[in-house]
Amino acid sequence: MTLQQIQPLADAAAPASRSPGRRALRRFGRNKGAVMALLLLIVLSLGAALAPVIAPFPPNQMSLRDRMQQPGLTHLLGTDEK
After folding, report:
1. Which of 12, 20, 65, 75 has the highest CB neighbour count under 10 A?
2. CA 77, CA 38: separation in Å to the nearest integer?
């Protein structure tokens, strides 16, 4: 084969021109570890952003009236003795 015969084959095998960002995103999507790490980062970020909604009670304030309560709508996991 000569160079003139090889060149059209190389051009035909090349994918359609894509932007570098699209190629990077596609390459990132193929890496399962990177995708899992991104999902974990998103979940942790959402948990931090929604912390006041998830746990509306102040962490250092005690309520002796609410100690040793069963799980319920106010305290999903119940309360302890402190």
Report:
1. 75
2. 29
Sign for the CA dihedral angle at 25, 30, 35, 37 comes to negative
> Model confidence over 36-74: pLDDT tens digits?
999 999 999 999 999 988 888 887 877 777 778 888 887
- Are the beta carbons of 71 and 78 closer than 8 angstroms? yes
What residue has token string 């990077």?
24
Half-sphere exposure of 14 (CA within 13 A, CB side): 9
d(CA 39, CA 45): 10
